[in-house]
Design brief:
The structure holds three protein chains of three kinds. By secondary structure, chain A is of the alpha/beta class. Chain A has 20 helices and twelve strands. Chain C is elongated and about 65 Å long. The chains are: A alpha/beta, B alpha/beta, C alpha/beta. The interface between A and B is large, with 46 and 37 residues.
Chain lengths: 558, 138, 298
């Protein structure tokens, strides 16, 4: 690492060097490859227009949000875990820890929990019509004590808890915070994230949700509450991944993702919340699938557009409000039931694309997920995939290694242009919420999904093992079988819980929640819904009971 | 353009808590393009499926499963079809169907099981055939 | 055909039934509004039928009928019958099929039928003709859609409903609609009302307004439709459609010959039509072997 600063003091490269010295002091980031050649931490020069190239960590962050990335801090590996009862998931958590996974930043532990559909949608296990889904595909949780079991003995001030949830997000966050409070942890030390997929009406519009306007109001409420009381908590994930999985192409997905950010920011502004006070706690969840180079270009375009929109449209100047943090996930829709081992390869190059794009965290799907819940073996292989990329390939030695490639830079520019066109069209149609309500977004995504499927059908698009190079082999892989007892136990547990609690205290808390909800719906005391959810959870209200109040006030999408 | 023949009518449904509807929507569009009328609903209780199937006079019921209840829900739907005196209304299922789900599903009377990756043309042909048979036009 | 016989038998019974039409652009929240109105109206109309008309694909003729998903709450209620209808691209077709279904529902003892259609086109005006009271629903700030609202709908609607009244633009939209009504010189019976299904506001008032207009229609009405020249127009249209179906399907070579004479320019359109009518007047077997089931006429 050259310690001499260039003579042209206002060049991008010089600024970058200065930042590196200030931030990382004397540490050297020079590496050597297999052939003994010295690798620079970042390459630069002139860009295609003959101007000095943007450096990583410089606005608009096309090349990454840090001046030096993986050389200093590797991505956080977050395998999704969760099935059955909290006690059963805890067993798998302990296994992962033993295998070297669950590592967060700076020696923290990190867990990425997925919940079963009833929990994710805010239904108690004894809700009519959900019995078959209890504990299947995720953990069944409906009260604060469930979190106490899941995280028993963990130092929550050193544990990052990520929760993948749909309409149940606000109430589930309430349950988690109540559990933390009971264990004596101060809220300002808690770190983690709730995906809060209530804003999403493309990937998840298949399930129940609040009304579109109600959703955005609740997003603002959670953001405002956490900004004040749980400042380390990430309050919203915009899932470009889910928009793709619903059928959108990359340009649409990035476009709608940015439109969602715009809608959230506008909601905050209309409520008198300063965007800069909440934006730093938003993040993206991005899909890495089959379009290897396009995945890299779209990531760079997303970062660039995000920075420009927040700065130019919302007047943000804090770098934390301009830097898009990204959690990567390999594409679920690519996982085929036919020739499942192919999926190991698909996950590997998807993960590689993510690393070359520069992401903060990564979830690599298990290869057998198309057959059912992942087996232990498959989960371990996903972890190994990440470890191999990190420690064998040398890809981590250079930040934004694709920067300067004619192809990648051109593709990045094109995607940026088309994304801005989509944003303009949404603006003309009255904004994202109006587009959701009129069904326009759903229509666009469905049409794209249908077109993709027709291309597969006609053979124009290949899926190896499915419509080409198929074989007659029987699928003899072990499929994870969820515990059929989980449903019975979960239902018995919640019934016992209701019988044993102080019912009048609980009712009073739910009534307070309802009143707070009405106030927030009218635009007053924003943040008080979340506060009352914590209080109600602490008064032993269940997930479904709190959710019923929220639906009453904030409506339903269907 | 005028209508001269009765069109196959189909009910496609999934649980209200299943969040993925890409598959069911794609099938709905494919069936529409094959000149069928497709009613789409989310069910809460299995009984709802049969109520809607009867109100809408459908020829085939297609259920998409994602997160669970594959066998239990299907069995309840068959029981309700029996109770409402339409035991021969054909039912097909699709989505995430595990190997251990198949025997009880077939035993319940499911006419076809579609997994992800099944060619659309096959799915469309199956619905067409089942509809014709049910109407006595085969 | 069982369907046709049932339809005819139902008509014979002639039970009175109240009919409410609901139309408006997509995104206005019609289905959610109907869902809320059903609850408000059930006390006065114990058995309610809902017909939802969706467009068919002009290419394939098929349709995806997804509106009823918003009425899932009423699914278990045996006194609420919900049916999705595809417009099948033939405007006359949907009107006749809808009429037949309404007659059947009346015979089955239903008290009220709500008919929902989307859009602001000609078919909506025709469907509106067979409903006693017509609602047009829009949402605030629909801007261009508002400007494009065809005159026909405004002439025909009894109640203009601004949904999502919790939005800031709601008052402005309601006033705009009132202005349009006054501009066309309507009596004050036609009103613009605001509702919010999320806040459950304005629903009881709207239900009340609907009920009083339905009662008025009943007092002066003879069943379906309420314009004096309407039955004759309908009869003329129905008969013309049957004639058209017969001509399309007929294998009589003389009709073929007349058509060719017109196409080659030898005979004017009017003269060719008159020649066909004269021909048919002489035939006694012209209905033989012809299946006019596609017209939906019962």
């Amino acid at each position: 690492m050259a310690t001499v600063i260039s003579e042209t003091t206002d060049s991008r490269y010089a600024n970058w060097q200065r930042t590196v010295v200030a931030r990382y002091a004397d540490r050297s980031f020079v590496a050597r490859n297999r052939s003994g050649l010295e690798l620079q931490p970042v390459y630069s020069g002139l860009d295609r227009h003959g101007e000095e190239a943007e450096m990583p960590g410089q606005y608009p962050y096309t090349r990454g949000i840090y001046p030096i990335h993986y050389q200093y801090q590797p991505w956080m590996d977050l395998q999704i875990i969760g099935y059955g009862l909290p006690s059963q998931t805890r067993e798998r958590m302990d296994l992962l820890l033993k295998e070297g996974g669950s590592k967060g930043y700076f020696d923290r532990e990190a867990y990425n929990f997925i919940f079963d559909m009833p929990t994710s949608m805010g239904c108690d296990p004894d809700h009519p019509g959900v019995r078959g889904s209890i504990g299947d595909c995720g953990i069944s949780v409906c009260k604060a004590s469930d979190y106490e079991i899941l995280l028993a003995g963990k130092d929550l001030a050193k544990t990052t808890v990520s929760m993948v949830l749909n309409a149940g997000s606000p109430a589930m966050l309430g349950l988690y915070l109540a559990a933390a409070k009971r264990r004596g942890f101060a809220f300002d030390k808690l770190g983690g994230n709730v995906t809060n997929y209530i804003w999403d009406f493309f990937g998840h519009s298949g399930g129940t949700n609040f009304s579109p306007r109600g959703s955005y109001r609740l997003v603002a409420d959670i953001a405002a509450y956490c900004a004040e009381h749980v400042p380390l908590w990430n309050t919203l994930t915009i899932s470009e991944h889910n928009i793709c999985e619903a059928g959108a192409n990359n340009v649409q997905a990035v476009g709608y993702a940015i439109a969602a950010i715009i809608a959230v920011n506008e909601e905050c502004v209309s409520l008198g919340i300063e965007p800069e006070s909440v934006i730093p706690r938003f993040g993206f969840h991005v899909r890495y699938g089959e379009n290897f180079f396009e995945e890299i270009a779209k990531t760079r375009a997303l970062r660039r557009v995000y920075a420009k929109v927040n700065k130019e449209r919302f007047g943000c100047s804090k770098s934390s409000a301009l830097q898009a943090r990204i959690h990567a996930q390999t594409a679920g829709s690519l996982l085929t039931a036919q020739q499942p081992l192919n999926n190991l390869v698909r996950n590997a190059y998807g993960a590689l694309a993510a690393v070359l794009s520069g992401v903060n965290g990564m979830t690599i799907n298990a290869y057998d997920e198309a057959l059912g819940l992942p087996t232990e073996e498959a989960v371990t292989l996903s972890l190994r995939t990440s470890q191999m990329i990190a420690e064998e390939t040398g890809a981590v030695h250079v930040s934004d290694p694709m920067g300067g490639s004619f192809y990648i830079e051109e593709l990045t520019d094109q995607i940026e242009r088309r994304v801005f066109e989509i944003i303009e069209e949404i603006d003309e149609r009255g904004g994202l919420i109006a587009c959701i309500e009129s069904g326009w977004i759903k229509q666009q995504v469905s049409a794209s999904a249908y077109q993709w499927r027709q291309e597969i059908e006609s053979g124009e698009r290949t899926m190896v093992g499915v419509n080409k190079y198929a074989s007659d082999e029987p699928t003899e892989y072990k499929v994870f079988q969820p515990d059929p007892e989980a449903a019975r136990l979960a239902i018995a547990d919640v019934e016992r819980h209701r019988a044993e609690r102080d019912d009048s205290k609980c009712k009073a808390a739910l009534e307070a929640l309802r009143k707070a909800g009405i106030e927030v719906r009218e635009g007053r005391n924003v943040g008080s819904v979340m506060a009352n959810l914590v209080a109600a959870a602490d008064a032993d209200a269940t997930l479904g009971e709190m959710q019923a109040v929220l639906h009453e006030v904030f409506g339903r999408n269907k | 353009m005028h209508d001269t023949k009765p069109r196959p009518r189909v009910l496609l449904t999934k649980s209200f808590i299943d969040s993925h509807d890409r598959a069911i929507e794609t099938i709905a569009l494919a069936l529409r393009d094959a000149a069928m009328e497709v009613v789409l609903i989310d069910y809460e209780q299995p009984e709802d499926v049969v109520t809607v199937a009867l109100q809408e006079d459908v020829d085939v019921i297609g259920i998409s499963f994602m997160s669970g209840g594959q066998v239990e829900t299907t069995q309840k739907i068959f029981a309700e079809l029996q109770r409402r005196d339409v035991a021969d209304l054909p039912v097909v299922v699709g989505g995430i169907i595990r190997p251990f789900d198949e025997p009880p599903l077939r035993e319940a009377g499911v006419k076809n099981i579609f997994r992800g990756g099944a060619p659309l043309s096959e799915v469309v042909a199956t619905f067409e055939t089942l509809s014709r048979t049910y109407r006595g036009l085969a | 055909m069982v369907g046709a016989e049932l339809g005819f038998a139902a008509k014979q019974l002639g039970s009175p039934i109240s009919t409410l039409g609901v139309t408006g652009p997509p995104g206005a929240g019609k289905s959610s509004l109907i869902n809320a109105l059903i609850s408000e109206l059930l006390p006065s109309y114990p058995r309610i039928g809902v017909l939802m008309v969706d467009p068919s694909s002009p290419v394939s003729g098929g349709a995806v009928l997804g509106d009823r998903v918003r009425m899932a709450a009423h699914s278990p209620n045996r006194n609420v019958f919900i049916r999705s209808l595809a417009a099948r691209g033939h405007l006359g077709g949907v009107t006749r099929a809808t009429r037949s279904v309404i007659e059947l529902l009346a015979a089955a003892g239903m008290d009220l039928v709500i008919v929902e259609t989307v859009g602001t086109g000609q078919s909506e005006v025709e469907v509106a003709e067979l409903t006693d009271v017509k609602l047009m629903v829009c949402a605030p700030g629909m801007g261009d859609e508002m400007q494009a609202i065809k005159a026909g709908i405004l002439e025909v609607a009894d109640l203009l409903v601004v949904n999502k009244s919790d939005l800031p633009d709601a008052d402005r939209t309601a006033n705009f609609l009132k202005g349009m009504l006054m501009h066309r010189g309507h009596q004050e019976k036609r009103a613009a009302m605001k509702v919010s299904t999320v806040r459950r506001e304005g629903l009881a008032e709207l239900a009340g307004a609907i009920q009083s207009r339905l009662a008025d229609a009943r007092d002066g009405a003879r069943g379906l439709g309420n314009r004096t020249d309407e039955p004759r127009n309908r009869f003329a249209r129905d008969t013309a459609d049957l004639l058209a179906a017969l001509l399309r399907e007929s294998s009589d070579p003389r009709i073929e010959e007349i058509m060719h004479k017109h196409l080659s320019g030898e005979v004017s359109r009017r003269d060719a039509a008159c020649e066909v009518l004269r021909l048919l007047a002489r035939k006694t077997d012209w209905l033989d072997g012809v299946d006019a089931s596609g017209t939906g006429l019962t």
